[in-house]
Design brief:
about 110 residues, mainly alpha, two-stranded antiparallel sheet, 5 helices
Length: about 110
């Protein structure tokens, strides 16, 4: 089983909360309250999600956050990449070439 960090779990909760009302711009404070997470944690995660293009932010008095695209177009791999960093099934699939089978490895070419 793949285990994810607590922050990745929290980010998923925040994204799901945003997905419930995709047309509504929500403040970090409102998201913290709705998701029952601390405001500093929500703010930190929103910045990471924004940098990865999963969340869009709007400045100003009516500013806040919303999904950058429909929830159906966001997959688990993108969330993992945003919070955990790039991942791959094997070293050679990540392009690191550490398995010693560079000439015969088929994993890196398939994924």
């Amino acid at each position: 089983m793949l285990r994810i960090s607590r922050l990745t779990d929290y980010a998923t909760v925040i994204l799901a909360t945003l997905a419930q009302e995709p047309d509504r711009v929500q403040t970090a404070a409102a998201l913290a309250e709705r998701s029952r997470l601390s405001l500093p944690t929500v703010s930190k995660l929103l910045k990471q999600l924004q940098r990865s293009g999963l969340v869009a932010s709007t400045r100003g008095i009516r500013g806040g956050y919303q999904l950058a695209r429909p929830a159906t177009q966001i997959n688990a791999g993108e969330i993992l990449d945003a919070l955990e960093g790039p991942f791959a099934l094997t070293d050679c699939a990540a392009g690191h070439g550490q398995c010693g089978l560079e000439k015969t490895c088929h994993v890196g070419h398939a994924w």
